[in-house]
Amino acid sequence: MPQGTRPAGKPDRRDKPSRPKQAPRPEILHIENLAAGGAGVARLADRTAVFVPGTAPGERVEAEVDRNTRPARGRLLRVIEASPDRVEPACLYADACGGCDFMHLSQHAQETAHAEIVRSAVAHATGETPPAIQVHSAPEPLGYRTRARLYVRGERGRVRIGYRAPGSHALVATPACIVLAPSIAGALDEIPTVLAGSSGEGDVQIARGAGGRLVVDATWRGEIAPAAWAALDRRVAEGAWAGARVRMEGAKTPAVFGDPRPVLEGADGAPLVVAAGSFAQSSDRGATLLARRAAELARAEVDAPREGADEKANGHVLELFAGSGTLSILLARGAASFVAVESDEGAARSARENLAARDLPGKVVVADADAYPIPPRVEVVVLDPPRAGAEGATAAIAASRVHRVVYVACDPATLARDLGVLVRAGFELTHLETVELFPQTSHVETVARLVRRRGAR
Ligand SMILES: C[S@@+](CC[C@H](N)C(=O)[O-])C[C@H]1O[C@@H](n2cnc3c(N)ncnc32)[C@H](O)[C@@H]1O
Question: Looking at residue 62, which CATH number applies to its domain?
Fold first, then answer.
């Protein structure tokens, strides 16, 4: 058929008149629940769902509703009837910054909302009622972040630091941030001082490195002033910072000062080295809790672990998406054999270093975990994929003879999708736990344990 023609009578989407834009207008809404992503959900008279950030279930609010977006969005104008779960945000910058989108909720309400988001996603995707969710509270609800990504801008010689405003590139300058651990919070003062005179913008990751001192990993678009390079060098040479790495836009290799690798406190209490620029959990104590739960659930006996039981009885363990080994250092300890798979070479190198520092046996393979063939002797797979989930790995597990799976996830939607595949392949979801790794935010970490049903392979 020649381009541009179509069979007579068949409607062409281009013929459809586009719906006229409606000006946003105020509406009184009743918030029913909190959606993944943190916004409260209300329904308009015609049942259209509206997502209103900054609200709580049960509240009556006035919001400016924009029906032109999909889904419709509401901007909170005022709370008419507040939920008893509403609290005064502990941070002055909470509204403008948006990074802590659950700070208006009590800790209990945050935990309940997280668990409900996970429960409903998993129930929907698996078609089954999930087991009761065990909630692990945050070890520290504030001051917990031992690693953070900040946004820095230099204009007319003045350098400001903070976070990106929600859904935009605008800088929300935050001279203080109460979710940062005291050990890294000083970076909010120090980085603008060091970079003074620079122009442009950068994403800057901060963490603790060797000796508990600050490490800074920056990507910069623009110019860094000569005095700023000298100040960076001096900070590291004088030992105030353990290291820094700066990647200028377009440069092939970064400038490196000292040792820019973050050094976290591992789940066994010993230092855990992370490759600069590689994934690291946001809080040491949260990561410890997570690693302990994952290792506990990976054991053959979970509900009735015997005192002094043979750890090697945990069998042959495969860990996928292993990063620098946050979980590996506990998983390898209890395994007859241990293989970890990670695609980031730097992270894999750190994972090897972390295992070797503990005299733990195990192999770390640099490979795509979503295409990794599961060796036939593997009995347990532990996976902790990025937000996109693990479609390939899930399909491989479903087709394997693996007995049990521990799935660690930071995205309830992709977790639920993958659990649905495993349940349909004959696995039973025996444990579902939320770990409060990101208190004050709508983000939640989940750990799920699945066991292959008898006779399902
Ligand atoms: C959520 S992190 C978890 C890392 C580790 N469990 C931890 O707690 O530090 C996911 C990891 O998967 C790695 N990754 C992403 N895609 C991958 C792939 N296709 N194959 C293997 N690893 C991958 C990332 O580099 C990252 O280290």
Answer: 2.40.50.140
What is the pTM assigned to this prediction?
A: 0.91
CATH at residue 368: 3.40.50.150
User: Of ligand 1's atoms, which has the minimum distance to the CA of residue 321?
Assistant: 12
Domain total of the chain: 3
Enumerate the β-bridge partners of residue 103.
none
Distance CA 371, CA 390 (A): 10
> SS3 for 139?
coil
Q: At a CB cut-off of 8 Å and minimum separation 6, what does 219 contact?
A: 202, 203, 204, 246, 247, 249
State the sign of the Cα–Cα–Cα–Cα dihedral 436, 323, 410, 248.
positive
> Which structural domain range is residue 443 located in?
110-140+283-302+311-452
- Here the ipTM equals 0.99
Query: Is any atom of ligand 1 closer than 6 Å to the C-beta of 411?
Result: no
pLDDT recorded at residue 4: 39
pLDDT of 310 above 60: no
Question: CA-based diameter of the chain, in Å?
Answer: 78
Per-residue model confidence (pLDDT) at position 15: 54
Contact yes or no for 116/34 (Cβ under 8 A): yes
Residue 338 known to bind ligand: no
Work out the average pLDDT over 193-198: 96
Instruction: Give which of 208, 251, 216 is closest to 232, Cα–Cα.
Output: 216
Give every CB contact of residue 211 below 8 A, 6+ residues apart in sequence: 242
Is residue 110 annotated as involved in ligand binding?
no
Is the link from the previous residue into 412 a cis peptide, with omega within 30 of 0?
Answer: no
User: Ligand 1 center to residue 320 CA distance, Å?
Assistant: 8
**Assigned token pair, 195:** 């970079």
